[in-house]
Design brief:
- The protein is α/β, with parallel strands linked by helices.
- The protein is 45% helix and 12% strand.
- It folds into two domains: 4-180, Rossmann fold (3-Layer(aba) Sandwich); 187-278, no CATH class.
- Strands 3-2-1-4 form a four-stranded parallel beta sheet, with helices on both faces. It has a three-stranded mixed beta sheet with strand order 5-6-7.
- The longest helix has 20 residues, at 105-124.
Length: 294
């Protein structure tokens, strides 16, 4: 998986990668919770190279909140790197605590995921479960991390201090195609806290985002579900591009076709965790504009 371009990475990032390889090799066998995102894709590619297929298994947890595009990315990365992948179903949608969508919703989701993966680990005699949490994640609102800690999940990227930018840098040097991929949290993150999580709502968000990607929207993209209204966030450069009348009309039509009556193109652009801001979980220096129909 390595390429000569890895030499272009910064000395500190390369040193951290060597520490990661040593960390992985120090464990008898490893099971990775594999989503196909930037972090887990990088970790999977380093792990298969460091310890080999006999000591490494990547596991994808499938549910209604896991976007189909993310699943395809995970499968593509795994095939490219020669990684065997096991797919298992998770059933967080059967948990009324998760469905109620409280501010710690992720805790219930991750508790289910790690419980399922723990059964796989025990059945296969694998020593350690790992995930792709990075050092930047530790400063964010991530109740799912509590579930991981409770179940003994290790996070080597966070433990060794990898930042998201370093992971992207090293992924690019290795030729891992996810290096420039926007972050893509689960579909439930598009629903305001307190709005029950349903397959219908998740499907509407997924259809809307897929349609916008089909139109050519690049970079970060979120379709936030506010009942009959979809609030669309995208990077500021894309926002300027899609704000002209003709493009905005296409965008609005595509999102309405996904099941929303009204569409709002958020003038503030993409903001990671904006629903946390709206819920008062984290602070934001900007001001919030009221939603309006479009």
């Amino acid at each position: 998986m390595s390429s000569p371009d890895v030499l272009a990475s910064s000395a500190s990032a390369l040193r951290r990668e060597r520490e990661l390889i040593e960390w992985l090799q120090s464990h008898h066998s490893l099971l990775l919770g594999f989503s196909g995102g930037v972090d887990s894709a990088y970790l999977a590619c380093v792990a298969i190279e460091a310890v080999g297929a006999e000591r490494f298994l990547a596991v994808i947890g499938r549910s209604a909140s896991y976007p189909a595009e993310q699943w395809q990315t995970a499968r593509d990365v795994a095939a490219r790197a020669g990684i065997d992948v096991l797919e298992v179903d998770t059933h967080e949608m059967d948990d009324p605590r998760y469905v109620a969508n409280p501010t710690n919703r992720c805790y219930f989701c991750k508790s289910e995921l790690w419980s399922v993966l723990e059964r796989v680990r025990a059945e296969r005699g694998i020593a350690t479960i790992i995930d792709g949490t990075n050092a930047d994640d530790l400063s964010d609102h991530r109740p799912g991390k509590k579930a991981a800690t409770e179940q003994g999940i290790r996070s080597p990227l966070a433990e060794l201090g990898f930042t998201k930018s370093e992971i992207r840098e090293l992924s690019r040097a290795r030729g891992i195609p996810t290096w420039s991929q926007p972050s893509s949290p689960c579909l439930s993150s598009r629903l305001p806290y307190g709005t029950p999580v349903t397959v219908t709502r998740l499907s509407a968000v997924e259809r809307a985002e897929r349609s916008l990607r089909g139109l050519g929207v690049q970079g970060n993209l979120r379709v936030r579900h506010h009942g009959d209204t979809a609030r669309v966030e995208m990077d500021l450069a894309e926002l300027e591009l899609w704000s002209d009348d003709a493009r905005a009309a296409k965008l609005t039509s595509a999102v309405r076709d996904a099941g929303f009556a009204q569409v709002v193109l958020d003038p503030r652009g993409f903001r990671s965790g904006s629903l946390n801001v709206l819920a008062g979980i984290v602070s934001h220096s900007g001001t919030s504009a009221p939603l309006s129909g479009a």
